[in-house]
Amino acid sequence: MTDPLSVLLLQPPAIKPAGPPLGLAVLLGHLRRQGVESQALDANLGAYRYLLNPERLAAMAQPASTTSLRRAIKNIARSWTLLTSPAASRSFARYQTAVQHLNTALSAYRGIDGDERVTLGDYRHGGRSEFTLKTLKQFADAEDSTLFAPYFTQELLPAVVACQPKLIALSINYRHQLLPAFELAGMLRRTLPGVKLVAGGGMLTSWREDLEKPSDPLLPFDHLVFGPGEEALLRLAKEEVDDFFLEGSTCLSFEPDFSGLVPDEYLSPEPVLPVTASRGCYWKECLFCPEAVAPTHIYRSCAPAEVPDLLLNLARQWQVRYFHFTDNALPVPVLRALASRRDELAGMSWYGFVRFEKALTDFQLVDQLSAAGCRMLQLGLESGSQTVLDKLGKGTSVKTASAVLNALHQAGITTYVYVMFGIPDETEADRRATLDFLEEHAETIGYLNLAIMNLPHQSELAAGRRPADENGEQKATGGLYLTGAAEQQRRGEARRFIQQELLASPAIRTIVNRTPPLFTSDHAFFFDKPDR
Ligand code: SF4
């Protein structure tokens, strides 16, 4: 008989299965170093493997299925193999086709009522709002179900039962995980009534205000953790606390343990390990950003000098060369530390978010970063209008952004630039300034993310914009962001500008068209750098 496990960490579907989940790996590392018997299980990857099983899909194919679905199902094994091999990055056309096949094959799953939709990046369930507690409770109580239910009952639950955990912690970081996570939690509660169930993660922390309101405890969980879970889980594992709501720790861990989260099983041309040098954001001033208006983490950075060692140790331990820094913004001292160890880091490839810092206009520093393995940097430009940037509290200038893009381009570091439209009070002239900036810098921009701004309820920018009749239930249905007629109009105008004006620009369309479908930034750094 196997020894009972103390803690089982679970990641529920549905998010992109592009790499092991860092949250689970960090918690696992922390618990194991403290002597707590623990294990991590990525039920998100498990669910995609289950749904994309060739035999299961072939059995589901109907004579009435569309030609594209039948073709996708026929190509499923080949597409999965391609997307988990370096060959995927050698031909963008073959890569695109394989992604499309997997995504089309997933469309075979529609759920019991035919109104569910799962893709390689998200999951929707007809008219159900994941931001309504009553709905979540219905899924937990088995009054409603998701298309993941067969995977949960046939594969996941037996695997969990075999682990004999005393405590199970679900990590919920994205809205598309909410319905499946609550359904799974209900199943776990009924199957293992004596086991403590804990939920935590960025999604629940951002939603804290609403979750703390109900007088009923949020069944089926025994505990909810807001913020970083290291200390709370450790104390729960040691049975030192029994409160329903637990505060996250101030003592943070930066050393992940990927045991059980096999890096080369994920859909990625090469195995990529996520890693972070900081939690929270060191800037924290952008008025539209959840990290600023409702931070899920207090800001902490690990000692910059330790970051190159972290990469080198992980590379050795897991035999990987590719890393994704998941920091909201890599701090400049960390970038300098990486640059200073470029000889040891040569041969690695990594990418992550940075701010448009003046330091990145220094040609020597960016050259050294390139030599240290920096392949791609993600940068939030948001707007090409200085007026808008100042209003948003971005703390950057259009001039610096231009100089940074040029320096990175010279150094051979690909850029992934994020812009937003639909910013409150944004004028036609502001939007046009963004378009002009992108066209002028098209040569230096590798990839582009075009978004329409979601305005968090707590943002200063939302003051005076909340619909007068928005009651608690409507607010909960809308989730973390403002809804209502004025919002819809703002978003509609932004959509029109993107479709009719921005994408009418051949230079901008070229950049948008080379973005890897669905996996976007997760896979962008595998493809050839834009012409330079
Ligand atoms: S720098 Fe990025 S993470 Fe930080 S507050 Fe601004 S948008 Fe948010």
Can you give a write-up of this model?
The model has no long low-confidence stretch (mean pLDDT 91). This protein folds into two domains: 5-48 and 127-247, 3-Layer(aba) Sandwich (Rossmann fold); 270-527, pyruvate-formate lyase- activating enzyme, CATH 3.80.30. The longest helix has 17 residues, at 485-501. It starts with a strand and ends in an 8-residue tail after the last helix. 42% of the residues lie in helices and 15% in strands. By secondary structure, the chain is an alpha/beta fold. A six-stranded parallel beta sheet has the order 2-1-5-6-7-8, sandwiched between helices. α4 (67-74) crosses α6 (92-106) and α5 crosses α6. Bound molecules: iron/sulfur cluster. Residues 281, 283-286, 289, 291-292, 328-329, 355, 380 line the site of iron/sulfur cluster.
Tag the structure with descriptive keywords.
about 525 residues, alpha/beta, Rossmann fold, pyruvate-formate lyase- activating enzyme, 2 domains, six-stranded parallel β-sheet, 24 helices
What topology emerges from the helices and strands here?
Layout lengths: L4 E7 L10 H12 L4 E5 H9 L2 H7 L6 H8 L1 H8 L8 H15 L9 E3 L4 E3 L7 H8 L8 H15 L1 E7 L6 H14 L4 E5 L1 H5 L1 H4 L11 E4 L3 H8 L7 E3 L24 E4 L2 E2 L10 H4 L6 E2 L4 H13 L3 E4 L6 H9 L1 H4 L3 E6 L8 H9 L2 E9 L3 H7 L5 H14 L2 E8 L6 H13 L6 E6 L19 H7 L6 H17 L4 H8 L7 H4 L8
This protein binds iron/sulfur cluster.
The site of iron/sulfur cluster has 12 residues, from helix 13.
